[in-house]
Design brief:
This protein has one helix spanning about 40-130. By secondary structure, it is an all-alpha fold.
């Protein structure tokens, strides 16, 4: 595998510096390291971390909303199912009641026929009595 290796080049020593360090009067004693201004990079890292946290919170919020939606949809389906069962039961009861009303109407018709037969029997009894006389 060929890894990306960066070549690091050390900054050259100041021209007056003694490389061996034998010269105590060299400018290295007065050398003061000034770190580079990394504010932009630091802010970029912080911003990236905050964006990642924001994405995580958005994902958690979406999961919670999805759970709420699934729960509400399930409850809605259960309610619809119960409602459909109640409607079917009511339809059956209505059909039973219609059948009973039909039977009652049939009984009324039979009662009318019986009343008519009673009247006919009365007439027959009168006719028989009149013929006997």
């Amino acid at each position: 595998m060929n890894k990306n290796k960066r070549l690091y080049i050390a900054p050259p020593f100041p021209p007056t510096a003694n490389i061996n360090g034998n010269d105590s009067n060299s400018n290295l004693v007065n050398f003061e390291y000034k770190p580079p201004n990394n504010t932009g990079a630091i802010l970029g890292i912080i911003g990236g971390a905050l964006a990642t946290v924001g994405d995580a919170l958005a994902t958690i919020g979406a999961i919670i909303q999805l759970d709420i939606d699934v729960s509400a949809d399930f409850q809605s389906q259960v309610d619809d199912f119960k409602s459909d069962q109640e409607k079917d039961k009511m339809r059956e009861e209505i059909d039973d009641l219609k059948e009973q009303v039909k039977e009652i109407d049939d009984l009324k018709d039979q009662v009318k026929e019986i009343d008519e037969l009673k009247e006919q029997v009365k007439l027959l009894v009168k006719i028989i009595k009149s013929n006997q006389n």
